[in-house]
Amino acid sequence: MKVQLRKFVKEDIPNKVRWINDRNNNQYLHYDLPLNIPQTEIWYENNKYRTDRYDAVIVCDDVAVGLIGLLSISGGRAEYYVTLGEREFKGKGIAKKATDLLLHYAFFEIGLQEVYLYTEIDNIGAQRLFERCGFIKMALERDSALNRGRNVERYYYVVSSDYKSKG
Questions:
Q1: 3-state secondary structure the chain
Q2: Treating both helix axes as pointing N-terminal to C-terminal, what angle do 37-47 and 13-21 enclose, rounded to 10 degrees?
Q3: pTM for the complete prediction?
Q4: Are 13 and 44 in contact (CB under 8 A)?
Q5: Predicted confidence (pLDDT) per residue in 96-133, tens digit
């Protein structure tokens, strides 16, 4: 199974809309739902040249299967996100491989020192992924975000640029 990342392009918009609107994928995502193609095209045009973010598509054996990226790139840090959109590709280690590729990009290609993320406390599967990828749970943040109109508790995770030397 060959996993690669490639930069998000306009032609990826229909997949993004489908993946984010899928109830099996969006329980823990903080989006105004449902997404639609016209609003996502506006988002794309507003973000395609930004240097403080990196949006990529996860490709497995030449099939686009999800989204991954870095947000708020600044001061040697960035926030990580991932969504594996295609059900039949879940549970096969693809998100782990994609995360490893993204962290390599973050630390060795653009020189970040730290990548962080937030995940809701109920999102156990994601927490397992993050910990397998070297992220360390640093804190519990109570009522730190809204998801569909309710306050949620989230864990804050960090991985530093020396993660590769640990294994």
A1: CCEEEEECCHHHHHHHHHHHHCHHHHCCCCCCCCCCHHHHHHHHHHHCCCCCCEEEEEEECCEEEEEEEEEEEECCEEEEEEEECCHHHCCCCHHHHHHHHHHHHHHHHCCCCEEEEEEECCCHHHHHHHHHCCCEEEEEEEEEEEECCEEEEEEEEEEECCHHHHC
A2: 120
A3: 0.91
A4: yes
A5: 999 999 999 999 999 999 999 999 999 999 999 999 99
